[in-house]
Amino acid sequence: MLHIEIDGKPLEVEHGSTIIDAADKVGIAIPRFCYHKKLSVAANCRMCLVQVEKFNKPLPACATPVADGMKIFTRSKAAVEAQKSVMEFLLINHPLDCPICDQGGECDLQDIAVAYGASGSRYAEEKRVVLNKNIGPLISTDMTRCIQCTRCVRFLKEVGGMQELGLVGRGEHAEITAYVDKSVNSELSGNIIDLCPVGALTNKPFRYSARSWELTRRPSIAPHDGLGSHIEVHVKDNKVMRVLPREKESINECWLSDRDRYSYVGLNSPDRLKVPMIKHNGTWVETDWKTALEFAAGQIKDITNQHGADSLGVLASPNSTMEEGYLIKQLANGLGCGNVDYRLRQTDFRLDGKRVGIPWMGCNIQEIEELDRILIIGSNLRNEHPLLAQRFRKAVANGAELSVVSPLDNDPLMKVAHKVIVRPNDMVNVLGQILKAMSGLQRLSLCLPPSLNALLETITVRPNTQAMAESLAGLAGPDGLVDLVAPKVGLFIGNMALSDPRFTEMYSMMEAIGGICGAKGGILPAAANSTGMHFMGVMPNATGMHARAMLEVPRKAYLLLNVEPELDCQHAALAKAAMAQAECVVALTAYKSEALENADVLLPIAPFTETSGTFMSMEGRVQSFSAVTKPLAECRPAWKVLRVLANTLGLDGFDFDSSEAVKNAIFKGEKPSTVVWRNLNNNLKELVEIEVNIKSDGLQRIGEVPQYESDPIVRRSVPLQKTKYNIRPMARMRAEQMAQLDLVEGDIVLATQDKGSAVLQVKLDNHVAMGCIRIAASHEQTIGLGDLMGDITIEKTSKELYKPYETTMLKVVA
Amino acid sequence: MLSKESIEKIDYELTKYPADKRQAAVMSALRIVQTERGWLSKESMTEVAEYLRIPEIAVMEVATFYNMYDLEPVGKYKISICTNISCMLRDSDAIVTHLQNKLGVGFNEVTPDGKFCLKEGECMGACGGAPLLIVNNHTMHEFLTVDKVDAILEELK
């Protein structure tokens, strides 16, 4: 420890810390623009100059390490003079347009100019003008305001993983720009708005719509991926104006993914359902709550009385809150119906009843950074978990070796040490090879089921899987110098594997591999409350049907919670057919659209900003939030709707008067974290007998869900739909595959899966494994197709059949 | 496409740095490509970026920082004349005026026949020979006088 003194305050700091760190620790304010605690030190704004005893010139606090006995003065005459001069230089070219600048009122430059600057400028010459750049639909630029702190450049390079902006030119001609006419396409790009200390980079959808002092800031939890990012919702006149991150070091640090930041636009969509609606003779009629609920309850009652309780199917979105999930399960069980499920995009349910506890990510989010060896199975990480990917990036930057087994070879923007890109069907075999290589390395006799043992006998380990196993075992690779004695290993299985018909095999293999190398890890669930839904058992009981079966064996009635069946279910064609044939579909939804054309009653529920509730994140963290605005028009929180619906159905035990009461019922009054930690467990009761050598030579579809199509709110966020990321579904395949099928880019093909087909354009994508066709799901253009991951046939067809897709938005029901 | 010769030269430069630090060769690569093509177009920068496997913008940052990289087409002979303090004290202004009159072009302009381009150079660290100019970034001429400049131009024609 070093002893220093700042402004006369004696202080003990660690070796290697800088003056600015030390000052921040004791709360002494040093002005800064380019310094940011999460980014590398650039020391190019010079705003943090301080006086240090025995140095005859001011030193930048952000780049000066402290030395023992250092005496630092931040407000001495010399320091203030230096700060004032720097401020004057920074303002020479800065326009005086604060009244029309979106940053006004929350601007570092404005604040620091008031505190450290002069009252007027001595500069009378012409100021420089920098042309604005169009860097995409999320961020608007006013480059004349830029003070070249390069925080945005460093963020995209160091945290985003890809340098998309740069400082070109020199001296007075220096300016921030993307390469020629490129846009910034990072899925974390919105963070550069927060980082920008001036108004050069501002929020495009929010632009000119409010001033920062008019906004009420309310805390909430991000409702999309399973990370559970802390957000701050800014509200004006009962309308959500923008979303910002709330700092939470152990979850989202100070960042936010673009999905969480810009999805709010979907909350103010014209699609919002404002009043309950009932379909009478094929036309929608607006009605009041009482009529709608009585009608819905009457229909459900009639059908269950007539055909038995299991003629009802209940599908709940994993983006619903725990309270909603709990009540809908209670409601179904109250009716004697076991057909409840939240796993809409899953097709393999063989692990039901085989689990010891609740599957989760298997470690804390922060722990990812400390891993030495990582294996990711079946996940396009940046698409599925944009912000979590950043933690993996940090681990890799710290020297972790990353291995990937996946059907897609998309660049995770970090160094991949080993990868095997194969068809989903072959992934099982690859995992088997790793397991075999691993057991050889560890010289362990394994307690594996007979079929697995027999299987390992027949598998031949290839060099690449051998290398992967050696990496996981901690042996030094080609670049490594020494073997790691007890490497911290993490195995994670992602959404593509979760949707695969052979998930059971992949999971069991992962568990076996994890057992040998003592790995942490587990599943990376797709949605904000997947883990919570599993925890409450929003799943079929012993006799009930799972999500897939409910659609395969159509039910007479369906109750949908926050679900747009064709877009949210694994098998779009099946979902559509099931809804079409049902006698009654009751949908609790925040939106009306063609996606619910087969419904009979629409009950307007409040999205996450208008209701209180709880999400359980992938690390098992239970996080409650309150409503940030009043519900729109006649919308009501879904927990209230479910309570009244249950009361109308004449069910007992639904007398909850707040969402907290429901939460108490879920945790039975105990502390949530205690209950959760008792229950989280990725282990299987026993390793399941598995089939490994299933050969299928046909083409396989890779139907990943694009991140900006993942749930009803995101789908309606116009700016996110406009990003380059939001690619129209096409039949993407690698060049060799195209040659094999005798296709060229731009051809029109008919893609057929069981029960449905879609006409698509062929697109070259060398990131796709041979034998696979990548066709994005959750989109109007592909709702005719079947399984996300499954067999598919492709044949060339005439160009006339192809209908160019006009709008990316869902059409509003008239 | 980068030519085979350029690639060979860039590969040689790459041997000077660790294998995973390909970015280190960006200045040499740009120099090699510029020598071959006369100037650095956007396409050239993209090719260098692709070959070094670094972001295009990172190449552009370097190329725009140093004034010896030409991002616009220059004539066959690029004459950069230093106008910094030492040369100025040794009357580089007279040389500049003479060159401009003789060639009929100002700074950053190319003669109509595409042969000469005049650039205002910065200090080349050879003030002992002031005033001076450099032709195509490679051939330096020191202790300039009007007569000497004429001789140099004559030689280049």
Short description:
Helix content of chain A is 28%, strand content 18%. Chain A has 814 residues and is α/β, with parallel strands linked by helices.
How would you describe the overall organization of this protein?
- The complex is a heterodimer of chains A (814) and B (157).
- Chain A is α/β, with parallel strands linked by helices.
- Chain A is built from 25 helices and 32 strands.
- A 7-stranded mixed beta sheet of chain A has the order 14-13-24-23-22-15-16, covered by helices on one side. A 6-stranded mixed beta sheet of chain A has the order 28-30-29-32-27-31. A 5-stranded mixed beta sheet of chain A has the order 2-1-5-3-4, with helices on both faces.
- Chain B is an alpha+beta fold.
- The longest helix of chain B has 12 residues.
- The two termini of chain B are 31 Å apart.
- The model of chain B has no long low-confidence stretch (mean pLDDT 92).
- Chains A and B meet through strand 7 of A and helix 4 of B.
Largest sheet geometry of chain A: 7 strands, mixed
The structural class of chain B is alpha+beta
Q: Which blocks of ≥5 consecutive residues of chain B have pLDDT under 50?
A: none
Count of beta strands of chain A: 32
Q: Helix segment count of chain A?
A: 25
Measured on Cα atoms, how large is the radius of gyration of chain A?
A: 28 Å
**Which whole number gives the mean pLDDT of chain A?**
90
Question: Most extensive interface: pair and counts?
Answer: A-B, 14 and 9 residues
How helical, in percent, are the residues of chain A? Answer: 25-40%
Strand order of the biggest β-sheet of chain A: 14-13-24-23-22-15-16
Oligomeric state: heterodimer
Shape of chain B: elongated
The H/E string of chain B reads HHHHEHHEEEEH
How much β-strand is present in the residues of chain A? 15-25%
Mean pLDDT of chain B: 92
